[in-house]
Amino acid sequence: MSYIQAFLLGIVQGITEFFPVSSSGHLVILENLFGMKIQPSVFFHVILHVGTLVAVMLAFNSDIKRLILELLRLVYDIYYNIRTGIHNGWKQSGKRYRKLVPNNYRKFMLLLIVSSVPTFIIGMLLEESVRVASANLLAPGIGLLITGVLLFIADFFPTGNKVPKEVTYLVAVIIGVFQGFAVLPGISRAGVTIVACLLCGLNRKFAIRYSFLLSIPAVIGALVLEIVKLNPGEFSAGMVGMGVLGFIAAAVTGCFCIKMMLKIVKRKPFRRFSVYCFFMAVLTIICSFAL
User: Fold this and answer.
1) d(CA 80, CA 72)
2) Of 68, 16, 270, 17, which Cα lies nearest the Cα of 159?
3) Tens digits of per-residue pLDDT, 152-172?
4) Where are the transmembrane segments (predicted)?
5) What angle do CA 165, 167, 170 make, to 5 degrees?
């Protein structure tokens, strides 16, 4: 892989990450079509996703600050309740406990944590399958076909109106399972999580926030796992440089594109994206047999 190819892959990641069309699928398709040899490929993909994560964190910075604050408050409230329980038992008093889920943001934060658990488990189980699937064009073609079907179905379901306090933890698990299978190339993480949210009755605006904020622990977790498995012998100065270049390209492109893309995703029917996924799926599957 050349520096120009790393730069182009970063741009593709920055553009496709925020549409429900599978950024990983597009990366795998380009790498296979143009014979790009990337070692280690999964780590490079994660680095590109970290680049677009910068755009997500900037776009949702107020939500992230509030969620972090609520996490810290939750830890303190748990500590306070434990201390209160000990005090009440020792002094035989009736000191009141604090509510652990007093507001929507606290509930939202807990929902994101619950969704991240099945995502992590499924991601670990499918790790080898992802490496195999990334080595050919057929797998991302089938993944894009699945994404297209899910996006097409989503438009036929009535618009939900659930906000965090009305969402159960079982729904959070279901959304996390959908995101877990999105590690396979061609299955759009944004697409399947937004569809899962809508099918579970979340309102469209909340579904989109849920989907993009849920990507943060997923990408950070994937990065940590890849760093732990790194073999320094696999890297050269050129590979590091390409990773940095791809990261910068993905981050800058993502920052320019995310707001525009979020508006489009919020307003436009998913059928438009499903048509694109069907077209790319057919083209990719044909190429997989022709090449």
Assistant:
1) 12
2) 270
3) 998 888 778 998 999 999 999
4) 42-60, 108-126, 138-157, 169-198, 210-228, 240-261, 273-290
5) 135
DSSP string, 228-280: HT--GGG--HHHHHHHHHHHHHHHHHHHHHHHHHHHHHHHS-THHHHHHHHHH
The set of long-range contacts for 236-242, using a CB threshold of 8 Å and a minimum separation of 24, is 239/39, 241/3, 242/1, 242/3, 242/6, 242/44
- Write the pLDDT tens digit of every residue in 21-51: 999 899 999 988 887 766 666 778 889 999 9
What's this model's pTM, rounded to 2 decimal places?
0.91
- Could you tell me the CA-to-CA distances from 18 to 31, 147, 220 in Å, in that order? 20, 14, 17
Which H/E stretch holds residue 4? helix 3-16
pLDDT band at 260 (very low <50, low <70, confident <90, very high): confident
Q: Which residues lie below 8 Å from residue 127, measured CB to CB, with a gap of 6+?
A: none
